[in-house]
Amino acid sequence: MYAEPDLTGVTVDTTAPVLVTGATGYVAGWIVKGLLDAGVTVRAAVRDPRNTAKIQHLVDFAEKSPGAIEFFAADLLTEGSYTEAMAGCRIVFHTASPFTTRVDDPQRELVDPAVQGTRSVLESANANPSVQRVVLTSSCAAIYTDATDCAAAPHGRLTEDVWNTTASLDYQPYSYSKLLAEKAAWEIADAQSRWRLVVINPSLVIGPAANTQPTSESFSIVRQLGDGTLRWGAPRAGLGVVDVRDLARAHIAAAYLPHAHGRHIVSGHETDVLELGRVLLPRFGDRFPLPRRALPKPLVWLAAPSAGLTRTFVSRNVGVAWHADNTKSRHELGMVYRPLRQSMEDMFEQLVERGTFTARA
Ligand code: NAP
Q1: What is the pLDDT of residues 106-124, one digit of tens each?
Q2: Are 67 and 42 in contact (CB under 8 A)?
Q3: Whole-prediction pTM value?
Q4: 213 is a domain residue
Q5: Can you give the residue range of the structural domain that contains 103?
Q6: Ligand 1 pocket test: which of 30, 33, 51, 95 has the largest number of ligand atoms within 8 Å of its C-beta?
Q7: CB-ligand 1 contact for 3 (6 Å cutoff)
């Protein structure tokens, strides 16, 4: 097993259960593990508790930990779905939200579950007097759409004061869904004063999966690095990344540190797609067709439609550096980010072990 979330400096309250929505997910898996290892009783809200393939890793974590896990069936699109699971909880971690870029109907597949689900969870918090804090997994996508947005931010870096103004149903609808969901969350939270909303805004999440069949979009780029798609080169599309285990720590710190408040950019490194491949070269370069050089922007622009990218995306991201200020996460949540190479190696190694790529003979 890979290095765990490091909870140094966080005193976890084990006297009340906590709710984790979307517990089957990539991000949630390590949050649940961190909580169980700290001795917490976790109410895991999942779409189908009978789907053992999706929950077995959580059962296994619980068996090896001082904590306990209870499963509840819940769906973002079913009103009141989370109320029963939330009864008696002081903390709610709301991570559930669809994260995919391959959709036919972005309103129905992304925006509706993200926004209606967030409303449903927070309205249940309003109805449950035990709830004191809700930690929402938002995204840097609620802050920006394209790397070019960084230049327009104060001092050229994204901060917690910046909101996404460029995503829409037609352009980067996942980002739009995260923007609308976070806005809805603040609207509900600001209309009351009993519980506090603390928001985590991660950049692209990398690192090994706790779940056995991850479907998170995080895996798309890394699969392409190893399967030969990018063997002739990779675009220098600027982005931020954070390790999934560091992100779990950020959520748990946001839940239990008394002073935690507001939004938090949780991002360990400013990088680009080519660099994500290059850090893997020393360990995996002799066996896998990893990218070694940058694809020229005009070439990426020409080939964009066949690679499932829009030319607007290429114009606004390839060759554009990504910058965000993670000071608040370091100072207020005590984040210490692990090296990029460690996250990428652990993630790639897991994909190799799971037979995702064929190594060169
Ligand atoms: P993931 O593995 O696909 O997890 C998404 C979770 O949401 C799954 O548990 C999924 O349940 C659940 N979900 C989706 N639609 C649902 C519905 N209608 N009702 C109930 N549950 C539903 O993706 P992830 O990367 O862990 O994402 C988790 C959170 O992190 C999301 O809020 C995402 O926006 C945020 N985030 C992710 C990244 C990243 O790079 N991965 C970056 C920033 C923010 P099933 O297992 O049943 O499908």
Answers
A1: 999 999 999 999 999 999 9
A2: yes
A3: 0.97
A4: yes
A5: 18-353
A6: 95
A7: no
